Amino acid sequence: MDKNRLQKISRYFEEHQIRLATAESCTAGLIAGTLGDLPGCGGWLECGFVTYSPEAKNMVLGVKFDTIERYNLTSEQVAREMVEGALHGSRANIAVSNTGVAGPSSGDAQVPVGTICFAWGFEFNGAVVIYSETKKFDGDRNQIRQAGADYAIERILFYHEHLPGGVMPRAN
């Protein structure tokens, strides 16, 4: 993602009083790292969790083993529980999560390489609103991971702007 776009996103986060947490699996911190390159990110980047193993997802983010077993490690259901865990385990009011298969080989026969499941969670009007989706990216391992991180960042704004009743208020 280019620096100009990232700077616009940073200004948006500041204007809307966003405190962001990330819960990353296959991107291994690239979302937080990409945003952390921006001067002033300390005003809105709350924390980042990197949880690869099922045990770490469970222990750190509260993902249920039953959810992993029932839906697969790479699933929107796991991404949704990861985003909830990031919100509950931080002071953030928005969180983004992902879990996927970056390659070079598939984690199992059910999930093709390049598949990433995402979730975005927003504390909004006293509740948590969660959006999720699955996307397939092409390229080698690092291209898939970077494309997934960039996509996750872009969609924060998209879903924030589509919250029921509009976006969270701007800072005064």
TrEMBL record:
InterPro entries: CinA-like_C (IPR036653), CinA_C (IPR008136). The keyword S-adenosyl-L-methionine does not apply. Residues 7-156 form the CinA C-terminal domain. It holds the Pfam family CinA. GO terms for molecular function: hydrolase activity. Keywords: Hydrolase. The keyword Disulfide bond does not apply. NCBIfam families: PncC_domain. This is Amidohydrolase, PncC family.
